Amino acid sequence: MDAVDSARRVARALEIRHYVIDLREPFERFVIDPFCEEYLRGRTPNPCIGCNTFVKFGPLLRRAAEVDAEKLATGHYARVDHDDKRGRWVLRHGVDKAKDQSYSLYGLSQGQLARALFPLGGMTKKDTRKRAKQLNLPAAERPDSQEICFVSEGGYGEYLRRRRPEVVRPGPIVDAEGRQLGRHRGIAFYTIGQRQGLRVAAGEPLYVTGIDAEGNRLIVGREEDLESRGLVMRDVNYVSVASLPKGGKRLKAKIRYGAPRAECVARAEDGEMRIEFSRPQRAVAPGQAAVCYEGEVVALGGVIASRL
User: Fold this and answer.
1) Which residues are 80's β-sheet partners?
2) pTM check: above 0.90
3) What is the CATH number of the domain that holds 119?
4) How far is 73 from 64, CA to CA, in rounded Å?
5) Fewest CB atoms within 10 Å of the CB: 61, 139, 224, 275?
6) What's the CA angle centered on 149, arms 193 and 285, to 5 degrees?
7) pLDDT value at residue 291
8) What is the distance in angstroms between the CA of the first residue and the CA of the last residue of the chain?
9) Could you report the per-residue pLDDT of 175-219, keeping only the tens digit for each?
10) Is residue 241 part of a domain?
């Protein structure tokens, strides 16, 4: 059963009207193309964020308006409501913290949040499966997805090999001083903090600490070389806060989807957003998103440009 048939079945089960929209072109433009381009630049992207911001709440939301739908409901584990004190729509983490997806929704604007519904945000995954079983939906027994939706067998590296073969050219593995220690299969197969697959003989464990896309080089170092005291973000979106005070604001930041939140101070200065951690964080990867929380609320987020 493909996605369209599944959507129609859900619609029939819930006794609602259903519409079909072709999202292949915007998905290619806003998700797949940037995904490939980021790896060409030696960065580690998160395609789910672009999909949420520019596809699900882009042409899909516009289509909802065309058919006079007041809201667009998705299956994200997150919550949204209007905070009269803030005078803003706020995005909150889901009740099921193990399945929370508020991190990947940080790119939504106030207008998009105003028209969003997240019915699963107040439920646990167990509750969702129970409800799906009551409705006799196939999702009741479907295993959780752990992979990128458009990448099949072979992983993302093989996907990039087919789409953009220039990103998987072999090249040198070097240390911080530029001494060559080995050869890599192609920079697309590696990310900051990775240890496996280096195939470098050394007297101690080595990890990927940097990716030089221009020189097609992989830079490795010791585990302590992975620690960062902070980072700089670009393309920042203020979600549940309108701005930051001049001296910055104490928040908690996630530097990747599965990472715990780390105490930090966020400061907007010289046209940049700087995040300084209370304790150094491991493997800050340019291209990934950094999302800052104020309690259960998503305050702001952006793309990691560099680490400090």
Assistant:
1) 91
2) no
3) 3.40.50.620
4) 10
5) 224
6) 20
7) 97
8) 47
9) 999 999 999 999 888 999 999 888 887 788 999 999 999 999 999
10) yes
Give the residue carrying structure tokens 């259960």: 296
Of the residues 36, 48, 51, 292, which is catalytic?
51
Beta strands 227-238; 272-282: pairing state:
antiparallel
**Which residues are registered as beta bridge partners of 82?**
89
What is the extent of the structural domain holding 28? 3-140
CATH number of the domain where residue 272 is located: 2.40.30.10
- Whether 158 is in a domain gets the answer no
Interatomic CA distance for residues 59 and 107, integer angstroms: 15
36 is catalytic: no
Q: Which amino acid is at 287?
A: G
> What's the domain count of the chain?
3
Residues 13, 126: one domain? yes
Q: Are residues 28 and 87 in the same domain?
A: yes
Q: Which residues of 80-115 are buried (b: 16+ CB within 10 A; e: fewer)?
A: beeeeeeebbbbbbbbbeebbbbbbbbbbeeebbeb
Q: Is 149 a catalytic residue?
A: yes
Pull the structure tokens for residue 110: 């106030």
In angstroms, the CA 78 to CA 94 distance is 4
The token duo for 59 is 């042409």
The CATH number covering residue 207 comes to 2.30.30.280
